[in-house]
Design goal:
about 260 residues; alpha+beta; four-stranded antiparallel sheet; three-stranded antiparallel sheet; about 55% helix
Length: about 260
């Protein structure tokens, strides 16, 4: 979906960042998913309903304004009423292409990335929201699909990490909502939610089977691994030197 001049102007004005960097993971393991075209049509339908509602509200407001001036003797002149009516109609006409482009750009600038250790979600235009989650911390995956989404063949995949269900006493509703929002991410409007869920489950199972925790922490090195490839003669020499050092230390302590 190519961006036109007005779309580029809006994204430049809003300083929408380009495609995000992939999250931490092995080179070549990055997979990028995007919202399906059905999600764009779904958002357009919601946008159309909103426009119809605005038109109805505008008609009711203009009728009340005109009727108030004519029959209710509102304390405004006829010229002022006409000016308010023209302003309302003008603002409505101006917002139509702008709100349409916002729907289009919200669909265009939406990124879902998965590697072998973590995932990254970025969405939003006015407020850009980006979340990175490691598979070691993910606790729950769930699919959500409303009746209208079912018509368009799309669904949302919810990803919840550790701490997402905590309820801390004394916290305000705003703080709890922000804390919950940090622990929940959505693959919104995808038509392959099952595939994405299974991919995440495979990566999670692979990490847990290998005994890995947080991928930021290096795996512990065992002593057996350090000496498994050493030459036996070198090991004997090191053991003899250690024994001699122990005898000298004992003699010093005894004296």
């Amino acid at each position: 979906m190519a961006d036109g001049p007005l779309s580029r102007l809006i994204t430049r004005f809003l300083k929408v960042p380009p495609e995000p960097e992939p999250p931490m993971g092995s080179p070549g393991s990055v997979r990028v998913f995007n919202a399906a075209s059905g999600y764009y049509h779904y958002r357009l339908l919601l946008w159309a309903f909103a426009q119809v509602g605005t038109v109805i509200g505008l008609i009711v407001g203009l009728a009340f304004l005109a009727g108030g001036v004519e029959f209710m003797s509102l304390p405004i002149g006829r010229e002022v009423a006409v000016l308010l009516e023209a302003t309302g109609i003008g603002l409505f006409l101006v917002q139509i292409p702008l709100s349409f482009l916002m729907v289009r750009l919200d669909y265009r600038y939406r990124w879902y990335m998965i590697t072998d250790t973590s995932l990254r979600i970025r969405e939003g235009l006015m407020t850009v929201r980006e979340k990175t989650m490691t598979f070691a911390n993910i606790q729950n995956l769930s699919l959500r699909q409303g009746p209208v989404q079912r018509v368009f063949g799309i669904s949302d995949l919810q990803v919840r990490t550790a701490g997402g269900g905590a309820d801390v006493a004394g916290e305000s509703k705003k703080d709890l909502a922000e804390a919950l929002n940090m622990h929940i991410g959505y693959f919104r409007g995808v038509d392959n939610a099952d595939e994405i869920r299974d991919l995440i489950l495979v990566q999670m199972r692979g990490m847990r089977d290998s005994g890995l925790g947080d991928p930021d922490e290096p795996a512990p090195t065992r002593a057996v691994d350090r000496f498994s490839d050493a030459d036996p003669a070198e090991l004997m020499a090191a053991a003899s030197e250690l024994l001699a050092e122990s005898k000298r230390l004992r003699a010093v302590l005894t004296s």
